[in-house]
Amino acid sequence: MTQWVELPMTNASVLRKDRSGWVLAAIVFAAEFIFGCYLYAVEGDFQEDALSRVANAFYVLFSRNPYLGAIGFVWNPLPSMFELPPVALWRWFPPIASDALAGVFVTSVASAAIAFALHRALLWAEVSKVTSFVFVLCLALHPFMFLYGANGMSEMIFACFLVICLLNYLSWKDDYAVSRLVIAGCALAMAFWARYEAVAFGVGLFAVVLSDALRRAPADAQVRLLMSRRAYRRFRSQERLWYAAATALVLLLPAVYSGIVWMVLNAEIMHDPLYFLHSAYSNLSLTSMLSSTSKYRAIEHHPVRVLLFMWQRIWIFVVPVGMLLVYRLIRGRLVRWETLQLLVLAASIPSLQFFLLLHGASYGWLRFFFYPLPIAVAWWTYEMRLDARQLERWWRELAQVAMAASIVISGVFTGLIMERNANVAPEEYSLIHIDKNEVIQQLRIEQQIAQYINRHLPRATVLMDSYSAFDIILHVRQPRHLVITSDYDFANALRYPWTHHVQYILVPDPVNGYQFDAVNRTYPTLYAHGAPWARLEKSFGIWKLYRVLKNP
User: Fold this and answer.
1) How far is CA 369 from the centre of its chain?
2) Can you tell me whether residue 6 is helix, strand or coil?
3) CA atoms of 445 and 101, how far apart (whole Å)
4) What is the dihedral of CA 158, 49, 317, 256, to 10 degrees?
5) Which residues lie below 8 Å from residue 398, measured CB to CB, with a gap of 6+?
6) Alpha-carbon distances of 269 from 131, 274, 427, 430, 482, rounded to whole Å
7) What is the per-residue pLDDT for 12?
8) Is residue 169 within 8 Å of residue 180, measured between CB atoms?
9) Strand partners, 540
10) pTM of the shown model
């Protein structure tokens, strides 16, 4: 055990002076940010969820009622909070919000942070700088990782904290320093603020850390000398339990506290502690229509079909996990607790997707299944650290090449699926084939609505639900003339528009999820048949703009 404690201490001073990690991070950031700007600002090839995250930050700063609660209480707020500083530049540089460049900036930073953390971990394991550089670049240039590092989605932010959490847990396995566990716990909490999948990963990590703590609780030799064998066994058993409980407390406390805070905020502001779970805008509501789709209806409540559905999407990301298992087999470490721990961590988030798909509560997008890839790469740094002084240099270099090759193989197959298979990777396929992307066409219509408002109704009070109209809001030059969902008086203004000086109401066709739009929920026949108190002003594709008449 001593040699593993000495190794980090030996490398610590070297790592402090090393600047290669910053160079690598700068390269990754520049590549991601340039690609993201080209994708969004030049091609106009947007990801809807990325726009909505930026919009949540936009409401906090530029709505009629600017306040932090306008960030929303359904999706995890951390990505939008990170986007607040760049969005603040909107007055001087509108594309930072309208083209979601704030999101591109944040995910580029997250991707660079992953590269930096992995590079440092490999240097800690005495892997050469050049080999580490190439290895990390193979991961950064993996088609899926590269795309999601540039498109402003929350996945890369979540993956960043996942990697930081796992790297610190694996460092804790070396010397059981509490500081490592504290950092892992804080990273897990930050991951929760980014995506709800952190709960599943936290459960898996809890089981893994608990098994480590129960098996390797530190023993006091002097206490053993003062007790009989039977008394010491009893004492040792209690000591393991207390150590395991304390370890779990240190690890999970930040994440559990975060969950409690989130529910308290939902209760105080939205008057429902589980508002994020079952509100009209929640994932459960959005997926409630899946049963009407043959693709999802065929697998609902059929475990084998769900597993086949998942395997079509996950196998490309578990190739590095397979390489890890082969390496552990060659090194004689396959049949050990740590192999089971690796598999538990890699399967934790996919297990949540299995449960959701089984109950018809997930779309099963490709991005929900990529997490085994960064988990395997983070675990690889631990394997290299274990063999830092047991293998000759050329053996370690060969192992690095083999693992890098598995990432490249995963990337090649992922790229082919994203480019050719609209069934397995519909979101990514749509981004690549922009001419077939219906979402992009709809976003362009919404931008035309914003242009109409800017040109003909610059100071008119227009009411719209930001759940559906976030892209319109981001393109309106005077957003403080809009009445949107986060405004304090939105509910009353929607019910009594003529008494709240609302001049226009924008409503989408109640199909394809727009039935959850607040206007459609309040006035279910407005879109199709109008109302005595409203007159149709103009139609824009699936959108209709109604002028509010006097109180009927």
Assistant:
1) 12
2) helix
3) 20
4) 30
5) none
6) 51, 12, 33, 37, 21
7) 57
8) yes
9) 543
10) 0.93
